[in-house]
Amino acid sequence: MVTTSGLGKLYEKTVKERIEAVAGACNLPPGAVAELESSMDPAMAKILDLMVENVIGAFQIPLGVATNFVINGKERLVAMATEEPSVVAAASNAARMARSHGGFVADPVESLMIGQVQLVDVDDAGAAIATIKGNEKRIIDVANEQDPVLVKAGGGARRVDAFKVDTSVGAMVDVHVVIDCLDAMGANAVNTMAEKVAPLLCDITGGRPLLRIISNLAVHRVARARATFDKELLGGSEVVAAVIQAVEFANHDMYRAATHNKGIMNGASAVVRATGNDTRAVEAGAHAYAAWGHPYRPLTRFRVDPAGNLLGEIELPVAVGIVGGATKAHPMAQLCLRIMEIDGAQTLSQVVASVGLAQNVAALRALAAEGIQKGHMKLHARKLGR
Ligand code: MEV
Questions:
Q1: Is residue 259 lining ligand 1, measured as CB closer than 6 Å?
Q2: Atom of ligand 1 nearest to the CA of 246
Q3: 376 in catalytic set
């Protein structure tokens, strides 16, 4: 039993001291202390200690590599960090089915993120919105003053939108500062800019800025990818027809759509995690986008081509970066970018979308044919040494 959770200024202690403090409080056996200590070498301990607070160890997640991917004509090995069995094998298998048809084609993606400023106590929301639009250039200039490095590299605030939001505590104005974050995920730049433009918004509208924060519903940073999956490799026209029926089920049933999209995120998040990006940001964005302007629905669409092959398309916001944050700090994230030969945030988001599509096709095929448990249990048995 934990004697106390009030461990004082744990953050001021060294990693070793912290392990001792936790071991004492939890009465851990010496073996557990050694396990925590050996979970990271001294160099890694230093890095991890700078990344989050109160570090006492490293939690290992398997890093797998998915094979067979061709994306926009380029061969790519895909790094996937996931604890779930079958995911890497399934992605590789679906990528193989797309390979003979040219692989995945992904559209260009701009790194546009939204910084939201919530204005409350606004007398006339319509007039405030007109004033904001009339002062768009001034707002953009103030935002861009905050990040000369981003602006110099060609990024920065691009435009300002404003919307009226009716609530039970009165009308509010939702200001969107749309910012090109280039190769960054952008949360820091966006949050800074949102905070800095808030006083100006207050001056010109008379409203009171309350929340100033990035939106994870990154509708201006949507990655789109498509591929043709070979009919024979899928298991024949009956399987293709069953996949279409399975997708139609998800199109009309939210319980199924949630699981359908979870399967997509099995692949997408594994790549996001392997590159040290924020899985929660991408997942929040994906699920919100699935319900953007319509009832919650699948992030993929399918049809059958004249030769009977399965044509799949995916569309989801992918807010990821290759500079800054854990991506820069974590050596494994850097290595994964290298394995995947990622040259920018755009390429990474195209890979994430393609893997999401592959993962979805693999799950649908298995579900519509032999059922998901067969392959899953085979890999599970391997784990148990059976
Ligand atoms: C399991 O992690 C993911 C699946 O449930 C996805 C799906 O049902 O489409 C197999």
A1: yes
A2: 9
A3: yes
CATH architecture of 63-108+221-383: Alpha-Beta Complex (3.90)
Q: What is the pLDDT of residue 2?
A: 86
Ligand 1 geometric centre to CA of 260 (Å): 6
pTM for the model? 0.95
Q: Does 24 have pLDDT greater than 70? A: yes
Check the CA dihedral 181-187-189-192 and report its sign. positive
Q: Give, in degrees to the nearest 5, the angle at Cα 241 between 236 and 247.
A: 130
pLDDT tier for residue 370 given thresholds of 50, 70 and 90: confident
Active site residue 278: yes
Residue 381 confidence (pLDDT) above 70: no
Name which of 260, 236, 237 is nearest 248 in CA terms.
260
What's the CA-to-centroid distance between 269 and ligand 1, angstroms? 14
Nearest CA to ligand 1 atom 2: 263
The pLDDT of 143-170, averaged and rounded, is: 97
Q: In what order do the strands lie in the sheet with 156-167?
A: 156-167, 170-180, 112-120, 208-215
pLDDT of the residue at 379: 61
- Show the tokens assigned to 338: 């290298």
**Residue among 147, 174, 183, 278 flagged as catalytic:** 278
Q: Whose CA is nearest to atom 1 of ligand 1?
A: 263
Domain boundaries, the chain: 12-51, 63-108+221-383, 112-215
Q: At what angle do helices 15-26 and 30-37 cross, to 10 degrees?
A: 150
Angular region, 324: left φ>0, alpha ψ -120 to 50, beta rest: left
Q: Is the CB of 264 under 6 A from ligand 1?
A: no
Query: For domain 112-215, is the CATH number 3.30.70.420?
Result: yes
CB-ligand 1 contact for 209 (6 Å cutoff): no
Query: Is residue 16 within 6 Å of ligand 1 at its C-beta?
Result: no
Q: In a 10 Å sphere around its CB, with 0-12 CB exposed, 13-18 middle and 19+ buried, how is residue 115 labelled?
A: buried
Q: What is the pLDDT of residues 317-350, one digit of tens each?
A: 999 999 988 999 999 999 999 999 999 999 999 9
